[in-house]
Structures are given as structure tokens and as C-alpha cells.
Amino acid sequence: MGRVNPLDAFSALLSDEGRTLLAGLRDHDPAQELATATRLRREHPAELVSAALGQARLRQRAVAKFGAEDAYRMFFTPNGVEQSTRRTVAVHRAARLSALGVRSVADLCCGIGGDAIAYARAGIHVLAVDHDPLTAEVARANAEALGLSDLIEVRCADVTEIDTSPYDAVFVDPARRGGRGRIFDPEAYSPPLSWAIEAARKAPRAALKIAPGIPHEAIPEDAAAEWISDGGDVKEAVLWFGTEPGEMRATLLPSGAALRTTAPLPDPPVRPVGRYLYEPDGAVIRAHLVAEAAAGLDGGLIDETIAYVTADELRPTPYAAAYEITDELPFNLKKLKALLREREIGVLTVKKRGSAVEPEEIRRKVKLRGPNAATVLLTRVAGAPTMLVGQPAKPVSD
What is the DSSP string of 57-113? Predict the structure, then answer.
């Protein structure tokens, strides 16, 4: 039996029969896939049924990134779902480009078109380029499905051969995954980061999507760097060209709160644990802006190598989660078990920073019983392994 050409299979999904089949699979239960496939193959070609079921699964996975309204109208590839930008992040970036006066952008390595969609919805004309024929067809289908074809031109081409001079900005999202998984060497990206940087320097404005773990010393001097978290999870980092060189920025979504500087503060002093402990957002930590966050809290560090800020007063901040600390104990599992039993703790949240002990190990070894809840933070205080016990601080009243 011959192998079905992926492009042919995708083209079949775009037919009236394919679209009708997909629409009927919106609420498809993957656990019932065999029975569903058997039923549908009585009326439709087996290849089309297989393609539709695969696309239905991808759409269900994509809801978390794109929302149900868009996801169930769009088309995806497995890599496209995995690697595409979350909609909230793409919308944020599009808003920044629009605010910079960008009205046209060359979106290089566009994938299934997640960023191009956000740019178009911000009123920006987009040239979306990808070297993979199937991926380019999916991006084109998505522009059409969402009514954005007038603003998005999709081209299947080698991004290194694209003339970007007619465009106000360039956006590059190099592939950071290969056949063996995630790629950590920026020069092994496709295209390499060095090429993307040179392409960015040729444009009036540019944004390069990179891995959040990029070393700060690898950031070009003429670039600004932004780390973006969404719901507390760091999603990506971006190098910006044509903005403010040397700026380090942490952006927290969905609020849009941004902490930034071009002149980093020195590290806060180490001080004893106060009544409150602040856990900075991951984007703040990645951007090396813990000192800036601490300055607004009148706080200090509990250890010179640990990104926990402590203070005696509770102050509202979007850049860190606050905990009210009730107990500070040297690391000792027996003492922790006794304390939890005394406090009648039945629900325990375990967090760690600077500790080799895994939270699962703590949960497994302590016996929880009672109506109360607590948080244990496994960390170091002035170099010593320590357990800090407390609970999320109540918001400051206006």
C-alpha cells in the first residue's frame, strides 16, 4: 500500500467533504477513535478519515494556545502545535511592533502562522515565509480560515534568500528543535542565530525569538532583550533591534506589567528572613531584574545565590508572589513532619529553589492530615539548607 503524500492529505481536508468531516469531529473523544474511524470509513475514504481524525486531535491540543474559537477553525501540523507561539504572547509582540510604527513585517520561519495572524489582526501587512511546503500550505489555509488573506502573503521559500528591504520590520523564529529534540546551540538553529542577527540589523526594526535560557553574554550589545511569562510560566525570550540597545525587560502576561532597565542595580544585600518572602516571576529572574523587583519592596536576599527576596512589610507587586512566613527551620524531615502534624496540615504545597531535594520526595514522606493548608519552601538561607513554612500572603487592602 502506497504512502499518502502529506500535501495531498492536507488538500483533501480543505475540500467540502473534508471540512464537513472535520466540523463533525469538533467534540471527538480520542478514547473512541477506533469506533469513530470504523463508522466514518463507511461513508468516506480511509485516507481522508485518518487525516481528519489526526487534525481533530491537533485542534484539541491547540485550544490551550489559541483558544477554542480560533483553534477549531485553524489547521495544524504536530510540530506547528508544539512550536507555535501562544496567542497571548503573539498579540503582545504584535502590539509592541504596532506601537513602534511598524505597518509591514517579513515573518521568517512563520510555521503554521500563529505570529502572522497576530500581526495581521494588529493591522500589519505580513509576508509569511517557511521552507516546508506543507507548513506553508497550512499557514495559507489559516490566513484564509480567519479572514486575513488580504493582509498575509504566504511564500514557500528559503528564508535566507528573501529580500526584506521593502518591509518595516523583520521577525525571525528559528527552528530550535531537530530530529533528536530541543537544540541548545544557537548556531545549530535553523537558520543559525548569527544569520538571524545579521538579518535583523538590516531592518529598521526587528524581533528574534530565542530560547529563554540564552546566556546574557550572548546578547548583542546593539539589541534589547525581553523575557515573557504567561500565567507565571516563562514562554520565550526576544531580541529586539531598533529599539533601546542594552535594555533588559521582563513582561508578565496577561497583565502586561513590564519591569525594565538599561542600568542594572547591584544585587540587594543578604539579610535575615523577615515576615514575608517574595518569589520573583520567572521572567524577572531570567532578565536578571531581581534587584529591581526588590528595590520596590525594600527587601533583601535570603542568600546571595538564591532569587528569593525577603522583607518585613507586605507590599503589592506584580513581579513576585508573596508568602507570609511563620517558621524557619534547618532542613530536617522529622521536625517538618512534627510541625505539620501540630498545625493539622492536610494540604501542602512544596516549592524549591537552591535545594537538591525534590518536592515529590517531601510529599511522599510526610503524612498529611487535617483541615489546614501550608506552603514549604526548600531553599538556602545564608548558605544553610533551610525549610521556610508559611502560606500565600493575603493581598494588601487598598
Answer: HHHHHHHHHH-HHHHTTS---HHHHHHSPPHHHHHHHHHHHHHTT--EEEEES-TTS
* Residue listed under C-alpha cell 544585587: 267
Residue type, 325: I
In angstroms, the CA 201 to CA 172 distance is 12
Cα(136)–Cα(153) distance, integer angstroms: 10
Q: Report the 10 Å Cβ neighbour count for 352.
A: 14
- Tell me the pLDDT tens digit for each residue of 36-92: 999 999 999 999 999 999 999 999 999 999 999 999 999 999 999 988 999 999 999
| pLDDT tier at 364, thresholds 50, 70, 90 | confident
Q: Cis peptide leading into 6, omega within 30 of 0?
A: no
C-alpha cell at 250: 521582563
Cα separations (Å) of 204 from 80, 103, 128, 327?
A: 29, 12, 18, 54
Residue 285 has pLDDT above 90, yes or no: yes
d(CA 307, CA 300): 10
Cell output for 32: 473512541
The pTM of the full predicted model, rounded to 2 decimals, is 0.91
Contacts of 28 by beta carbon, 8 Å cutoff, 6+ apart: 36, 53, 56, 57, 60
Q: How far is CA 133 from CA 15, 111, 127, 163, 265, in A?
A: 18, 10, 15, 19, 48
Q: Rounded distance, CA 337 to CA 139, Å?
A: 55
Q: What is residue 182's predicted lDDT score, i.e. its pLDDT?
A: 65
Strand partners, 324: 276, 391
Mean pLDDT of 321-333: 96
Quote the CA–CA distance of 210 and 212 in Å, as a whole number.
Answer: 6
Structure-block grid coordinates of residue 115: 505570529
Q: What one-character-per-residue DSSP string does 334-353 give?
A: HHHHHHHHHTTEEEEEEEES
**Helix axes 16-23 and 46-66, enclosed angle (nearest 10):** 60
